[in-house]
Amino acid sequence: MTTMIRRPRRLLLLLLFPLLALAPPPSAASRHDYGDALRKSILFFEGQRSGRLPPNQRVRWRHDSALHDGSGEGVDLTGGYYDAGDNVKFGFPMAFTATLLAWSVIDFGKSMGPELGNAISAVRWATDYLMKATSVPGVVYVQVGDAFRDHGCWERPEDMDTPRTTYKVDASRPGSDVAGETAAALAAASIVFRGRDPSYSARLLDRAISVFEFADRHRGAYSSSLRSAVCPFYCDFDGYQDELLWGAAWLHKASRRREYREYIKNNEHILGADDSINEFGWDNKHAGINVLISKVLMGNAQYLESFKLNADNFICSLLPGIFHPQIQYSPGGLLFKVGGSNMQHVTSLSFLLLAYSNYLSHSNQHVPCGSHSASPSLLRRIAKSQVDYILGDNPMRMSYMVGYGSKYPMRIHHRASSIPSVGAHPAHIGCKAGSKYYLSPNPNPNLLVGAVVGGPNLSDAFPDSRPVFQQSEPTTYINAPLVGLFAFFWAHPGNV
Ligand SMILES: *[C@@H]1O[C@H](CO)[C@@H](O)[C@H](O)[C@H]1NC(C)=O
Fold first, then answer.
1. Is the CB of 338 under 6 A from ligand 1?
2. Which of helix, strand or coil describes residue 278?
3. 463 within ligand 1 shell (Cβ under 6 A)
4. What residue range is the signal peptide (predicted)?
5. N or C: which end of the chain has fewer CB atoms below 10 A?
6. Is the pTM of this model over 0.90?
7. Is the CB of 457 inside a 6 Å radius of any atom of ligand 1?
8. Atom of ligand 1 minimally distant from the CA of 463
9. Buried b or exposed e, range 163-191, using 16+ CB within 10 angstroms
10. Which uninterrupted H or E stretch holds 144?
C-alpha cells in the first residue's frame, strides 16, 4: 500500500499532467444516449420482479410468480427480486442491490428527470420485501428457494415447482452480514422516502435500527449458520464485520444519531475498516464504507480521518497506468478484478469513483496518489470510460446492455428471458423441459431490456453464450450502481 503524503496544492496541479495522459481520451461529444440507457437500466428491475405484478408493470412478458413464498412458515414473503438468471430470492445480494439503488437516488436522483419515479419504484419493490423479511423481531428471512434444486432446472419463474424453502437467521443462528446489509438498505431507503412518503420512511428507519441491533448483538456469519443453503451461491467469504460498519454508516447518515458515529469510531479497527479497501460488492463493502464515511467528513473533521485515507488509497489503486496487484485493465480499457461476473466490479467501483469525485468537488480537494494527484474530473473520466465501454466503446463494438444500441447480448443466461413467455406458450414447461431452450443456439425470445451481463473476458472477448454464465448472466447488483452513473452522465453531457 502506498504511503500517503500530503503535498502543497501548487505542486499537486503540476503533478496532475502525467496521470491525465494515462486516462482514456474523452470520447467524441457524447455519442451515447445516457437517458435511454438510464431508462432501460431501471426497466430491467421490472423483469426481475417476483410476486404479484402490479397493473402498471411495463415488462409485459413476465407474469405473477412465487405467490406462496413464506406460507410454510406462516409469513408473507412474496415480492422482491430474483437476483439474476435464476428463480431464487437471495436476501444478501437483494439487500445490497437495494442499498445501491437507494444510494443512486440519494446522490443522483436530481439528475434522473422523468425516470426518478421509476427509480424510486425499483427501490420500493426491494424494501417492501425487506420489510416483510424483517417483520418478526429477532429474525431475518434471508432466502426463499432451494438454490440447488432451482439451479437443477431451467424453468420460468411463473412455472417454478422446486421447493420454496425459507431460510432465516436469528439469535441461535446469527447472520450479521445479511442482517447488517438489510439494515443498510432500509436506512438508505429511509433517506429516499423522507420527503416523499414520510410515514414509510419512518417505518424503514425504525426497522433499520432494530435489524442493526439484532445484527450487532448476535454476531456471526450467515454462511456458518446456513452453510448448506447459502454456499456456494452467496456465501459470505469476507466475514460479517464490514456489513456492521456499513450498516452503522448508513444509519448514521439516515438518523444523524451520535451513537452510530461512536460505533464506527469504536469499532473501526475491531471490524477491520482498513482491510481489503479496494473491494466493493455484495460480499465486501470496504471501499463503499470508506467513501461513504469520507463524505460525512469531507471538509471538516479529523474525527475519522483514516476512512478518508483509505478512500484515497482505494481511488489511487484504480487509476489506469498505476500498477496494482488486484486491479487490471483489459487492452480495450475495461477494469478487471479476479472472479466471475467482472461487470459487477466495473459498475460498483465506477459508482464509487463518481460519488467520490462529487464529494471532492464540493470540498475542493484532490486525491494524493504517491507522487501524483488525481482530480475529481479525472475520476469522472475514468468512470465515464467504463460506462462508455459498456455502451459500445469496446473492441467488440457491442453494447453489454440488452436492448441498447444495435448490437448487444442475445443469449443471456436467464431462465425467464430464454424460455417462451407465458403469453406465447401458456402450457407449463417443466424443470427439464426447459433444457432445450437453454441449449438452443437461437437468440432469447424475450428481450430483458436493460440487463447488463457479466461481460467480456480480460481479452475483451465475449462469446454471447448462455452456458457461459460468468459472462452472459445479468444481476441486479450489476445494474443498481449504473442507475446513478447513467443519470449523472445524462445530466452532465459536457461537464466531465
Ligand atoms: C477470452 O476469450 C477468447 C475467446 O473465447 C479467448 O481466445 C481468450 O484466450 C480469452 N482470454 C482470456 C484472458 O481468458
1. no
2. coil
3. yes
4. 1-29
5. N
6. yes
7. yes
8. 5
9. ebbbbbbbeebbbbbbbbbbbbbbbbbbb
10. strand 140-144
Q: Cell 444519531 identifies what position? A: 257
Rounded distance between C-alpha atoms, residue 200 and residue 195, angstroms: 10
The per-residue pLDDT for 300 is: 60
* Predicted confidence (pLDDT) at residue 23 exceeds the cutoff of 60: no
Which residue's CA lies nearest to atom 9 of ligand 1? 459
Q: Which of 457, 464, 468 to mutate to test the pocket of ligand 1 (most atoms within 8 A of CB)?
A: 457
Residue with cell 483509505: 310
Q: Cβ neighbours of residue 170 under 8 Å, at least 6 residues apart?
A: 138, 139, 140, 218
3-state SS assignment for residue 362: helix
Task: Quote the mean pLDDT of the chain.
Answer: 91
136 close to ligand 1 (CB < 6 Angstrom): no
CB 248 within 8 Å of CB 264: yes
CA-457 nearest atom, ligand 1: 1
Per DSSP, 30 falls in state G
459 in contact with ligand 1, CB cutoff 6 A = yes
**On the CB side of 368, how many CA atoms lie within 13 Å of its CA?**
15
**Helices and strands, counts by H and E, the chain:** 19, 7
Q: Report whether 463 contacts 411 (CB < 8 A).
A: no
CA–CA gap between residue 384 and residue 357 (Å, rounded): 12
Give the residue among 178, 145, 176 at the shortest CA–CA distance from 162: 145
pLDDT at 18: 44
Q: How far is the CA of 174 from the centre of ligand 1 (A)?
A: 41
The tens digit of pLDDT for each residue in 320-331 reads 887 788 899 999
- The contacts of residue 427 (CB under 8 Å, 6+ apart) are none
Asked if residues 311 and 287 have their Cβ atoms less than 8 Å apart, the reply is: yes
Block residue for cell numbers 413476465: 62
Q: Residue 367: beta bridge partners?
A: 374
User: Measuring from atom 11 of ligand 1, which residue has the nearest CA?
Assistant: 459
Identify the pLDDT of residue 10. 30
Phi, psi torsion values for 28, nearest 5 degrees: -55, 130
Mean pLDDT of 72-78: 96
Q: Is the Cβ atom of 458 under 6 angstroms away from ligand 1?
A: yes
Pocket probe mutation, ligand 1, options 330, 337, 338, 459, max atoms within 8 Å of Cβ? 459
**How far is the C-alpha of 445 from the C-alpha of 78, rounded, in Å?**
27
What distances in angstroms separate CA 200 from CA 147, 195, 205, 233, one per listed residue?
32, 10, 9, 32
* Distance of alpha carbon 487 from alpha carbon 111, whole angstroms: 5
Res. 466 pLDDT band, cuts 50 70 90: very high
CA–CA distance, 438 with 415 (Å, rounded to integer) = 8
User: Does the annotation count 155 as an active-site position?
Assistant: no
For 47, other C-beta atoms within 10 Å of its C-beta total 24
Q: Under a CB-based contact definition with an 8 Å cutoff, are residues 276 and 286 in contact?
A: yes
| Ligand 1 pocket, residue 328 CB under 6 Å | no
